[in-house]
Amino acid sequence: MRLDLSYELPQGRRRFELSVPVYDAGLELAETSTDYRFSAAVAGFAEKLRGPKRRQLGYAEIIALAEGAIGSDRDCRRHQFVDLVWQASVLAGEELARPDTSCTPESERAKAVEPIEAERARVIQAPSEHSIVAPGVHADEHESESDWQEFVVEVLRLLPPFLALPMFVTAFSQRRRE
Q1: Is 45 within 8 Å of 60 (Cβ atoms)?
Q2: I need a labelling partner for 83 at 20 to 30 A (CA). Which of 4, 14, 67, 153 fits?
Q3: What stretch of H or E contains 8?
Q4: Is 97 exposed, middle or buried (CB count within 10 Å of its CB: 0-12, 13-18, 19+)?
Q5: H-helix or E-strand containing 59?
Q6: What is the pLDDT of residues 147-158, one digit of tens each?
Q7: What span, in angstroms and rounded, lies between the C-alpha atoms of 6 and 16?
């Protein structure tokens, strides 16, 4: 199998193409690292959110894969992801048992996200056109400037893995037979 990539530099007009061989190590999914399995769960969730183009994992399968790959979760981010997938399943109308996402962060900087209750998740209102916060969330009038700065830093820290996600999905999707 080969992974074919093409890209352009932000200010350039020249397109670069790269082809890299990818070898199957012959491992079953259960034999792979927790990071690999968790990445597969994230990629499966991304595909689920994109829409039904081909056979996809169900929410229950994504949650099971992610729960089995939580590993060492110092900042509780993987637990938060599992809760996020469950919330998406509730919004999609699936009745799944709520997974145990209780976690105590080791670092003081990590803040646990308050989970959305099932009843509240169903009645989330659409944001107004001028809203800068998520639907159903009201901005605190006394919110400090440093909270927004921390948020921006966190988004910038998480952005590179999300930009790499399409490459991960492309590398492991099956080629169409012609």
Answers
A1: no
A2: 153
A3: strand 2-8
A4: exposed
A5: helix 59-67
A6: 666 766 676 666
A7: 5
Q: How many residues does the chain have?
A: 178
- Tell me the C-alpha distance between 54 and 116, whole Å: 30
- pLDDT tens per residue across span 27-46: 888 888 888 899 999 989 98
Look up residue 5 and give its two tokens. 């990539």
Nearest to 115 by CA among 90, 149, 142, 95: 90
On the CB side of 60, how many CA atoms lie within 13 Å of its CA?
5
Q: Is residue 9 part of a domain?
A: no
Q: Amino acid letter at 45?
A: F
Q: Which of 48, 12, 76 is nearest to 169 (CA)?
A: 48
* Statement: residue 141 has pLDDT above 60: no
What is the domain count for the chain? 1
Whole domain around residue 50: which residue ranges?
31-123
